[in-house]
């Protein structure tokens, strides 16, 4: 039994979980189509919801000031589905499209990683230390259709964007807003 997702036949999540020991012992190969977000994260959320797995945080982030963000598997799954829908809908991205994320390691960085996995979008991570030349090169070489950055890094990123002929959307993470940018928090 298999199910279809974007035209690909994939093993059912329960089959993947049941193969764990044989995969771990190198007796079976990994399935051809595997998606961590749907095949693992969603399965763990279901197991927790059914009471077959103890509840543990899927994500736990603490910054230098002690601010804390903690998401359960169900919350991370739900948020990543919303983020994947925002990337596919408002940003117009499709499976295989590339996205460059120039973000500090804020919770949204991890959320976007899972959302991209879920949607089949290729995430190209970049640090906040990238120069304008670095960003410009990455945009052109990757043919990225979207760039994601924080409201504090956007002023440094924005000057190189007009030179990117492939860029379709710009996504801003944070409290601020900028003309021509979509706000990630509002999209969620």
From TrEMBL:
A Gene Ontology term for the protein's cellular component: mitochondrial matrix
Keyword Oxidoreductase set for record: no
Keyword Protein biosynthesis applies: no
EC class (word): ligase
A GO BP entry: acyl-CoA metabolic process
Keywords from the named record: ATP-binding, Fatty acid metabolism, Ligase, Lipid metabolism, Nucleotide-binding
E.C. numbers: 6.2.1.2
InterPro entries, A to Z: AMP-dep_synth/lig_dom (IPR000873), ANL_N_sf (IPR042099), Mitochondrial_ACSM (IPR051087)
Catalyzed reactions per annotation: a medium-chain fatty acid + ATP + CoA = a medium-chain fatty acyl-CoA + AMP + diphosphate
Domain spans labelled AMP-dependent synthetase/ligase: 52-173
GO MF, one example: fatty-acyl-CoA synthase activity
Family, similarity comment: Belongs to the ATP-dependent AMP-binding enzyme family.
Protein name per its UniProtKB record: medium-chain acyl-CoA ligase
Organism: Tychaedon coryphoeus
Underlying gene: Acsm3_2
């Amino acid at each position: 039994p298999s199910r279809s997702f974007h035209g690909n036949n994939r093993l059912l999540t329960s089959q993947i979980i049941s193969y764990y020991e044989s995969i771990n012992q190198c007796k079976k190969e990994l399935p051809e189509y595997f998606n961590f977000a749907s095949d693992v994260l969603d399965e763990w959320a279901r197991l927790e919801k059914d009471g077959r797995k103890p509840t543990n945080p899927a994500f736990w982030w603490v910054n230098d000031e002690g601010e804390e963000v903690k998401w359960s598997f169900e919350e991370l799954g739900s948020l990543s589905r919303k983020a994947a829908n925002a990337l596919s809908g408002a940003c117009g991205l499709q499976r295989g499209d590339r996205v460059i994320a120039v973000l500090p390691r804020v919770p949204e960085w991890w959320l976007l990683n899972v959302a991209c996995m879920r949607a089949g979008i290729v995430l190209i991570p970049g640090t906040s230390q990238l120069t304008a030349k670095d960003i410009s090169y990455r945009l052109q070489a990757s043919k990225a259709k979207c760039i994601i950055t924080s409201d504090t890094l956007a002023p440094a990123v924005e000057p190189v964007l007009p030179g990117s002929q492939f860029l379709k959307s710009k996504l801003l993470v944070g409290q601020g807003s900028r003309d021509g940018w979509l706000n990630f928090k509002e999209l969620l």
